[in-house]
Amino acid sequence: MTPGIEALKREWQAFNAQAAKPVQCIFCGGARIWWNGWRQRTASVRVGEQVLHVEAVACRLVKCGLAECGRSWTLRPPGLAPQRHYQLCVVAQAASMYLFDPDATQDQVAASVGCARRTLSRWLGWLAGIAAPADLHRHLLDASDVPELPAIQEVAAPARKARSAAQRSRLAGAAQVLCLLEALGQALRLPPPGLQAVVELVLGGRYRATTDHAPRILAFARRHLGLAGGTLPM
């Protein structure tokens, strides 16, 4: 096991050891909550400049103690996205490498992060549809608390990477959304990458919320962000 994985596992183990039992059921609101054992999963995460595969990540299970409910859910360590093996820090790295390096190919980028070429292509399409750039810009304006932001130049992927106008539009949209999410994360004082930090804030620990069902992940919760502009349609 590499030192990076060991440190990450220690961090997650500390979370599991210190995590308080939820005070109410996320399904019915009942106050009778039990610990309900453990489940294990795997994940590919970015540690420094490396993408590392982590085996046997322990996650605590929680169960509602009310007989009329009795449902259970997973209490995930921070940074571990639901229903996603490749964590969003890896997605952000791969997308940035492909979109902003004119010489990078999908095969090269996919090999560097340990995913399939088709997986990278799916990430780019998902990223392009995660939110409208205009909505992200509006939330960025609200979060920055300034009357006007400097124009964020649309970053168009090199034309030779696209076989059609539709693909060029998709890649350019993915690049713009990635830039805006990074800027929004900075404005909200969240750790980079912005893609991961903002989506984690959107998910808010909700159960069975998945990052794979684009373009509607979940709306921003106003109570989490306090943004005057309302919700972010994702």
Describe what you observe in this structure.
The chain folds into two domains: 3-75, no CATH class; 88-225, no CATH class. It has a three-stranded antiparallel beta sheet. 42% of the residues lie in helices and 15% in strands. Mean pLDDT is 81; it is low at 213-234. The protein has 234 residues and is of the alpha+beta class.
Biggest sheet, spatial arrangement of strands: 1-2-3
On the 0 to 100 scale, the average pLDDT is: 81
Reported for the largest beta sheet, the result is: 3 strands, antiparallel
SS-derived structural category: alpha+beta
Given as residue ranges, the uncertain stretches (5+ residues, pLDDT < 50) are 213-234
Percent of residues in helices comes to 40-55%
Number of strands: 3
* End-to-end C-alpha gap: 37 Å
**What is the N-to-C order of secondary-structure elements (H for helix, E for strand)?**
HEEEHHHHHHH
- Kindly provide the radius of gyration, computed on alpha-carbon positions and rounded to a whole number of angstroms: 19 Å
